[in-house]
């Protein structure tokens, strides 16, 4: 199960490849997870169902963001502890992250499930989409803690030197989701209930695999018994607070996608109605897939960066970051080219060409993809700042990128460019963020020169 990985001495390119290949493959399976849902919902239930799922998607992104926040924060802290020989402290951090995040998301799921109709309306659902959105939420929201555990557990397993097993934790739920989606939607005709249940069961299996691994006593990174005394609880709160501070930018990255979906749904339904939301939902299915690959690059670099930062080896930190950045730029150029060339084929996977939403999406996807390179640099840069315990620049870049620039572009560009402005809102927000990132790099270099 384990791979021969030494974060402190192995050659950086070899080490990065050992982590990157299974991590990207795992993210590809996650992408298949997302795409399959979209294809089966769009083809098996209809474009309104696709739009309804997109209305509820921010809820899922928030829960995933919580999982990633604890995963990144605990992984960075545990990496530094391991580099300093503090194995028990690393285990305690991982255990605290799993326990606290699970409790938070259990409360979050209960709140959503008990107020599903009100939440759907708050997210911008129209009366026409409301029954479909509520039905989906009732069978999806209760299982959000499992999806978050799957997201955070990947970091701990890779830190323990088992990136191939982490890949399996993504692959197995994806296969389960594909099979159950087909059975529940096309054979049993369960509609939105079937789509939500297939996804939820996949997450349950994946979370079970994570817990099974972290429960093995022979692993270095594993769950352990935590004291429940008053002093221990105070220390837990302190540790969790620091983890959240380090990982908050990752949570906000997921929140930024939720913001993109919320603002996009609002603007599209205002300009083009439900067909516009259905077209935008295809981009929203596509965008997290790109994000997953960029995230895989950042997550592969994270334990290398954090471990060597904790060991005081700045040369290895810089080399790993440069390699991650070049990989991200190459991926961004590739994704942009593929989207521009095959936008019609991508749209055809989700909805029939006779739907009005099809023509809207075919015209809009290439515009939407024009910011993929900037997006790549921004995500890897945020991951770098987190990995070397620089939460402030990570937070500043994330907030500007995902909220300030995003909101301004979504509500401002359509006034100037019409519908094309909606599609270009995300690329412009990413480009503006890239300018901020470049300014931070320039300022850091200037300081180091003196």
From TrEMBL:
GO CC terms in record: plasma membrane
Q: Which domain of life is it from?
A: Bacteria
Any one Gene Ontology MF annotation carried by this entry is: antiporter activity
Protein location: Cell membrane
Q: Which UniProt keywords apply?
A: Antibiotic resistance, Cell membrane, Membrane, Transmembrane, Transmembrane helix, Transport
Membrane topology qualifier: Multi-pass membrane protein
Q: Transmembrane ranges?
A: 20-40, 60-82, 94-116, 136-156, 168-190, 196-215, 240-264, 276-297, 323-347, 367-385, 397-416, 422-442
The biological process GO terms on file are: response to antibiotic
Family membership noted in the UniProt record = Belongs to the multi antimicrobial extrusion (MATE) (TC 2.A.66.1) family. MepA subfamily.
* Stated name of the protein: Multidrug export protein MepA
Source species? Alistipes shahii
